[in-house]
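Please check this.
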Amino acid sequence: MGAHEIRVRLGGVSRQRAYMITNRTDFPEPIADLSQGKVWLTGDVESWMSIHRRNQPDTADS
């Protein structure tokens, strides 16, 4: 899963927000750092999201 897929999976967050999230110390380590960008295992990202993003609305309601 690349950065674009992570952005989409997180509800269409901005590039800057995706960068902030993927650089958190508790975010999974990428399995590769290619010339086109970092790549993460989908299962690792999904597991992280199930813990850190559960019940998060896609947009702010208030």
Summary: The helical segments are 3-9, 15-22, 42-52. Residues 3-52 form one domain.
